[in-house]
Structure formats: C-alpha cells, structure tokens
C-alpha cells in the first residue's frame, strides 16, 4: 500500500534508482574511463548496502566483507540486480504490519561491530543512503555536462502519483 510512509519511501527509491540506471546507461559511453569507474563504484556501493540490509532484514548472513563488491560488476548486471532488490524491498515493506517496523533486528556491520536497528530504521537507512549516493552519481553526470535523472520525492509525486492533491 503506497500510502504507508515506508512504502512511499521505497517506491521513491525504486523509481529514482531506475531513473538513474536509465540515465547512466544512456550516457555511459560518454564518460571517461575514470568517470565510468567512479560511477560503477557508486552504483555498486548503493546496491551492496541494499543487499546487506536485505539479508539483515531476512535474518540471513551475507557474502560481503565490505560495503562494495570484491570485483566490479558490469553496468547491465548491476542494473538488473538492483531492479530485483528494489522490487524485493517494495514487496517486503508491503508485507509488514505497522508494529513490524518497530521490531529490532540484531546484526553485525561489515566492520565486525554488532548492531541493532528497528526494521523501520533499516528501511529508512536504505532509502536515505541511496538518495545520498544517487546525488554523487548525478554530480558525475553533471560535471560531464549530462543530465541526471529526476530524483526528488516531489518529482516522484508529480510523475507517479495520480491526483496528488
């Protein structure tokens, strides 16, 4: 249900991630080798953090030693995997009850430090973390004179929510 705040945050993240991958895919050949490497590192970092916290929410261990891949995936593979993970978050949030968002989740950061966050805090972290780094990726495109994707919640509301009055 998109009216629920967490569901709306995840919907915005999914929409913004797809827009960013579209913008990067359309302009990837215009980036220098260094710029494309930076872009892939940004996208990979967003995605790995999404996957790490996906595993935490499921109570599963994850294969990551750091908040990035050991070897850099190709852009299309990254885009495909990000789409699947974003879809998972949307389905996951829709499956939770209001009280589920308050449930604590114990896990270990990639640094080895134990941690505890509520499910809602994890969802909020994943959404805010992605927003920050999509801004980094947008800056790489802008420095090259390329147009980044729309990313703001107001853009999402304008584009995706009918009768937003």
TrEMBL record:
Gene3D superfamilies membership: dinb family like domain
Entries under PANTHER family matching the protein: PROTEIN DINB, SLR1116 PROTEIN
InterPro entries (alphabetical): DinB (IPR007837), DinB/YfiT-like (IPR034660)
One Pfam family cited in the UniProt record for this chain: DinB
Record family assignment: Belongs to the DinB family.
Keyword Aminoacyl-tRNA synthetase tagged: no
Descriptive protein name: DinB family protein
Annotated keywords: Metal-binding
């Amino acid at each position: 249900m998109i009216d629920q705040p967490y569901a709306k945050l995840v919907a915005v993240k999914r929409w913004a991630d797809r827009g960013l991958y579209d913008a990067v895919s359309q302009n990837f050949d215009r980036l220098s080798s260094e710029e494309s490497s930076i872009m892939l590192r940004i996208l990979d970092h967003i995605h790995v953090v999404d996957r790490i916290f996906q595993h935490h929410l499921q109570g599963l261990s994850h294969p990551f030693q750091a908040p990035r891949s050991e070897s850099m995936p190709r852009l299309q593979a990254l885009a495909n995997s990000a789409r699947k993970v974003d879809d998972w978050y949307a389905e996951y949030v829709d499956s939770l009850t209001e009280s589920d968002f308050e449930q604590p989740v114990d896990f270990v950061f990639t640094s080895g430090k134990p941690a505890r966050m509520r499910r809602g805090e994890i969802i909020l972290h994943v959404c805010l973390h992605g927003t920050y780094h999509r801004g980094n990726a947008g800056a790489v495109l802008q420095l090259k004179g390329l147009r980044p994707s729309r990313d703001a919640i107001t853009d999402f509301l304008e584009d995706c929510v009918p009768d937003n009055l």
